[in-house]
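Changelog-adjacent note: as of this version, every example in the card shows the full chain rather than a window. The one below runs 192 residues end to end.
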Amino acid sequence: LQEAEAQFRRAIQLEPGNAEAHVHYALLLTHAGSLVTAESHYLRALALNPGSATGNLVYAIFLSNQRRPEQSDEYYRRALELAPEAAEPHFYYARALADQQRHREAEAQFRAALEIEPENQEIHLYYAQFLAKVDRPAQADTHFKKALELRPDDAKAHFSYGVHLATHGLQDRALEHYERAMELDPQYRELI
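Full-length structure tokens:
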């Protein structure tokens, strides 16, 4: 981590106008927990390239993770305006909206993401979890199954589907998915 940080600092010193270097450095700093410095690099990147959908999206995600929804909304919307045909901004905005209990808006964003990338396993999985949370079990079931069809060896998907099934009294089916999750990733043993 320190070596990567030093490399990004050198890259920025050599080319201070490189917005992409600022974004990558900000992501690294965020991961390291240096949030104030990270934010300054996100903002520098956006000052250098305000038309970057990626720059707007990663800053929106950063703000969401800092529980600053009013500010994050602005940057999610910019990312969507800049890349309306990309699933990723819709997907991450859906997750942020779901966290804010803005269910109608979240669902619209999940659906938009799936319309763009109907075979994206991660979107199906998170949409299934969202649907389960808002008590729409039949629809959740459909998306859990699609997620597992697309990636049958995904331990997280098996575990999440198991939780969903157990919640609805389907213990035998849940156990099958819990066991598969543990086979694929032993960390799930601690959760069951």
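Structural remarks: The first helix runs from residue 2 to 14.
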